[in-house]
Every structure is written in C-alpha cells, then in structure tokens.
Design a protein that fits this description.
- This protein is α+β, with helices and mostly antiparallel strands.
- It has two domains: about 55 residues, no CATH class; about 375 residues, no CATH class.
- Helices cover about 25% and strands about 35% of the residues.
- The radius of gyration is 24 Å and the shape is globular.
- InterPro entries: DUF620.
C-alpha cells in the first residue's frame, strides 16, 4: 500500500515538473499531472506496467488560460491590461525570440479518425493558413495622383475610390507614420463539404468539428512580415524579410516560395490599409454590387504574365490570379475581398492535364479605430478547391470555412527590428510552388462523415452570394 502510494505521489510530481517546464501554469499543470498520474496508476493496477500518460504538447499557450479575453480588447492597442488573456499576450511576445519548431502534426483523439483529421488539418493550414496576395507591392511607394486627363475612366475611378479608402482608414499621413504593426487573434477552420461527380458529402457536424486556433502577425516597413498560426495541435510559420518569402509546415519543413515577394493575404483583410491601397493601385473599377445589403464599388486586379511565370514551376503552371476588392460606397472601407487562381498541372505520363482552381472569398467586418486607424476586428472566409480535367465527370470540389476575430492590435512597437524577420536557417535549397499544398491524388479525403456535432455549416450558392450558418463566427467572438 505504501509502495503504490509512493509511486503515485512520485508520478504526480514528476508529471507536474514536466508540465511546468513545458510552459503551463502551475494550476493547470497540477490538474493535468493529477490526471496523468491517475491514469498511470490505473495501468499499473491492471498489470499493464505502462509509464506516465501525458497529454500532447501544444505549441502555444494554455487554451483555458488564454480563453475569455474576448474580441473586445483590440481597440486599446496594448499588449495586455490585466485581462484574463494576458497569458497569451505574454506568450506572443516571446515567439520571435525562439526558432520555429519542426514538430510533427499532432493526432487528435476526438470523434473523427486520426488519418482523416490529419488530412483535414493539413488541407486547412496549407490553403488558408498563410495565403499570399497575387502580386508584389511596396507600400512605401506613393499612390498615383488622381487624374482624369488621358486616363481611362476605369482607372481614374479606381484611383478616386482608393483615395476615399485611405481617407476613411485614417489618412495617408497617419498611415505612413506606421513603422511596424502587431495583431493577435483567434480563428476557427473547418472543411464543410466535399463534392465529386457521383455525390455531395456535407459536414453536418461542422460546429463541433471546427478546429480552434490562434495567430499572431508582425509587420515592419518595408515589406517585412511574420505570422505564426497554431491550429489543432499544429503550427504554421511564414515570413518575409523583404527579399524572400518562406513558410514552415510540419509536413514540408521550411521552404521558400516561388515568385516575387508578396504580401500576406491575411494582412489585406482589414489589418493593413496602406498595403491594401498599394495593392489595388493598378486595378480597374469594373462596376458596382451589393454586399450584405451595402452598395460597393468593385476593383479588379490581375497578376501580370511575368509574375505568373515566376510563380510557376516544372509541370505546374499558374494560368491566372485575379483579385477583387469591394469598397463600401457609404464608409469607403474594404468590406469584401475575393481572389481566384487557376493552376494547370501537366501529367508526367503524357495524359490530360489536371486543373486546380482555388477561390477565397472573405467578408471583412467590425471596423474599429485603433490609434486613429480603422482596423477590422472580425471576418469570415469561404474557400473552394475545384479540381477538374483528366477525364470527363471526374471533378472534385472541396469547400472550407474560416472565421476570425482580432483581440489586440498595436502600432510602432518598441524594440522590433529587422532581426525578428530573419528566415530560418533550415530552409531547403530551391523554391517550392504553392501547388505542393494542394491535396494529392485528386481525392480530398476530408473525413466529413466521421465528425459528430449539432449544426450544419455548409456553403450554398444562392443568387451568387454565400449563405453562412454563423456557427463558426459566433465561436470566434
């Protein structure tokens, strides 16, 4: 009796030390260590003789301690003001001081199968985690002067719309004074539907199957950025030092991106007005449209052939990449962002080529001023991966959803330097095209039938508008 009690006590404190060393709070570590020790004791009594059972390590803060911060803290522009989420804020500030981890993708023990969950997680993070804008842009370059003489009406209208957008976002002078910026938020991602030639499988349990996560974004003029997004036990890092764009995923490691330096698409979703305006400097106004009942001007930007060739690689050719921005006629702000790019992958055996069309549609909401700059504090995205070609009636279409909210934003953070944006030393030689993140084999096994939940969060086409269940968005507020 004494011996077993001593072993149990020793197991508890051993587990406690390990958990605290991993960065958990003492209270949380005690709870988890007690559970681990109890499980180990049960194994010993059953004759299993197993060691201590510890939960998988999360590359991030304790979710319980970082929850409850809410989405209302973004307007103060600070890093933590005694709120419940301060543990996450402290963790964020230490991220750039350590090297990115190359840990393997965690396997969940929820209702879905491990292989299906890994496939879902890889697809979600690969496509949505750190998507890039279509073209290179430098926010330091001034926008073209508004002119109607010898200028097509589509171009001059676009210039006028962008001038209004900059004024509504805080003004050119204030926006140009930002040397660096920081944003932190939470996100939920889920695969909602998989369609093949024979059937359509909808994830009717998306609310429970959605993967919760967090992200932190740092930016510094000119053209430097770094993002770290943790989701479902895994983490994606991506960054740019002004000359090189790189990304690190658990399944590919660290690699540089093909083509010119491009901004992070997530920064265009209401977080960086100056870069957004510079991105659309070469756009054309193609008309008007209502978005959520609000009249908007539509600006269209197409990637030039030279950029498309630079992004292509081997048998994979980027055929087009188009970006549409919807600017509210009432407020002047960007409320909807949609981009679509088409990739052709030639068969190595001489057969028909396979085409992949990726469409991301983002609704940008909840604008609030932060230090005089209008920042969107919430939004949602719908992603469609459409694969076709090869033979007739062999297409597949996968739909995904993402909802996000911003908790903290700050500008001109003291101490941030160029050293914080140095690429990792283990970047593989050569560049990798974005096509490597597409599901292989044409069978996007997203495991939709193995999830369990209570709500339907599928994407539906209705009058060319995306119908949302709202389940993900509510969870991010």
């Amino acid at each position: 009796m004494d011996s077993s009690g001593g072993n149990r006590k020793q197991g508890f404190f051993s587990a406690l030390r390990d958990e605290v060393a991993r960065g958990l709070s003492p209270a949380r570590a005690r709870r988890r260590s007690a559970e681990a020790a109890a499980a180990a004791a049960a194994l010993r009594y059953a004759g299993g003789g197993g060691g201590e059972v510890l939960a998988p390590l999360m590359e991030g803060p304790d979710p319980e301690e970082s929850s409850g911060g809410g989405g209302g803290g973004g307007g103060d522009g600070g890093f933590g003001r005694g709120r419940k989420g301060d543990g996450w804020g402290r963790w964020v500030r230490g991220q750039l001081a350590r090297a990115p981890s190359a840990g393997a993708l965690a396997v969940g023990t929820g209702g879905g199968g491990g292989a299906a969950r890994r496939s879902d997680l890889r697809m979600l993070l690969g496509v949505m985690g750190a998507a890039l804008a279509p073209v290179h842009v430098c926010a330091a370059e001034p926008l073209p002067h508004l002119s109607i003489k010898d200028t097509p009406i589509e171009t001059s209208s676009a210039q006028y719309i962008l001038q209004q957008y900059l004024a509504a976002s805080g003004g050119q002078k204030l926006l140009s004074s930002v040397r660096n910026a920081y944003a932190m938020g939470k996100v939920r991602m889920v695969a909602t539907e998989c369609e093949t030639a024979g059937r359509v499988v909808k994830n009717r349990m998306a609310a429970r199957c959605a993967e919760p996560g967090r992200f932190v974004l740092w930016q510094m003029a000119p053209e430097m950025w770094y993002i770290e997004l943790a989701l479902g036990g895994s983490k994606v890092h991506a960054g740019c030092n002004g000359k090189l764009v790189w990304r690190h995923t658990p399944w590919l490691g660290a690699h540089s991106a093909k083509g010119p330096v491009r901004p992070l698409r997530r920064a265009l979703q209401g977080l960086d007005p100056l870069t957004t305006a510079s991105m659309f400097a070469g756009a054309r106004c193609i008309g008007e449209r209502k978005v959520n009942g609000e009249d908007c001007f539509i600006l269209k930007l197409c990637a030039d052939p030279e950029t498309l060739r630079a992004r292509s690689e081997g048998l994979a050719e980027i055929i087009r990449h188009v970006l549409f921005g919807y600017f509210s006629q009432k407020t002047g702000l960007l409320v909807h962002l949609e981009d679509s790019h088409l990739t052709r992958i030639q068969s190595t055996t001489g057969g028909d080529a396979v085409y992949w069309e990726t469409t991301i549609s983002s609704f940008i909401e909840d604008y609030r001023p932060v230090e005089g700059i209008m920042i969107a504090h919430a939004g949602r995205s719908a992603v469609t991966l459409f694969r076709f070609g090869e033979v007739a009636m062999s297409h597949t279409k996968t739909r995904m959803e993402e909802a996000w909210s911003i908790e903290e934003v700050a500008f001109n953070v003291p101490g941030l330097s160029m050293d914080c944006f140095i690429p990792p030393t283990d970047i593989k030689s050569g560049s990798i095209s974005e096509t490597v993140e597409l599901p292989h084999g044409g069978k996007s096994k997203v495991g939709l039938l193995t999830c369990h939940g209570v709500k339907v969060a599928a994407l539906e086409k209705a009058d060319d508008n995306v119908a949302w269940s709202g389940a993900l968005q509510r969870d991010c507020k």
